[in-house]
Amino acid sequence: xxxxxxILAGIALALxxxxxxxxxxxNAGHGGGHAAMMGTPGLLANADRVIEVSMTEMKFEPSNxxxxxxxxxxxxxxxxxxxxxxxxxxxxxxxxxHMDEMxxxxxxxxxxADTVNHHKMMKAGMMHDDANSVLLEPGQTAKVTWxxxxxxxxxxxxxxxxHREAGMVGEIGFMTH
Length: 177
What we know:
This protein has a single domain, classed as Immunoglobulin-like. A hairpin with a 2-residue loop joins β2 (49-56) and β3. By secondary structure, the chain is of the alpha+beta class. The chain has helices at 5-16, 26-29, 34-38, 92-107, 118-124, and strands at 39-41, 49-56, 59-61, 64-67, 72-79, 85-90, 133-136, 141-148, 155-157, 169-174. The radius of gyration is 15 Å and the shape is globular. The strands form 2 sheets. A 5-stranded mixed sheet has the order 1-8-5-2-3. A 5-stranded mixed sheet has the order 4-10-9-6-7, with helices on one face. The model is unreliable at 1-34 (pLDDT under 50). The chain contains 5 helices and 10 strands.
């Protein structure tokens, strides 16, 4: 039996961030050394700015976002599409590592094309409550507040099976001061 990605990531985060954010979830810590460089969960009250992100079928708007090292951004993420979508800050390797969990969620009915069954997810111990990610049904809105680390490879993607592969990926670029 494979260990839960949530547990592995929690351990990785505990090693790279303070105890206050150690339980941030599977994606924030997945991917080896990228976690510390990527940044840490931020506090809404400390946000330097707010960026609204709309998710529709296989695209994000905006699809390119510029940030600065150390900047705290609150992303207000809206699912304006007809299907479940995810906003997940991370790297290609992190998203690859998350693929099995998302596929399992789909195959076991924890998630369908347009709904998320939180009760089934909770019973299976697979809550999608990561600090760097939100999974939204059509019409839902949520916030992700993140403090960016040093300039590194980072972006955002929808990891619902087939969505990232269809091009539902956004880029994050780093601005100089």
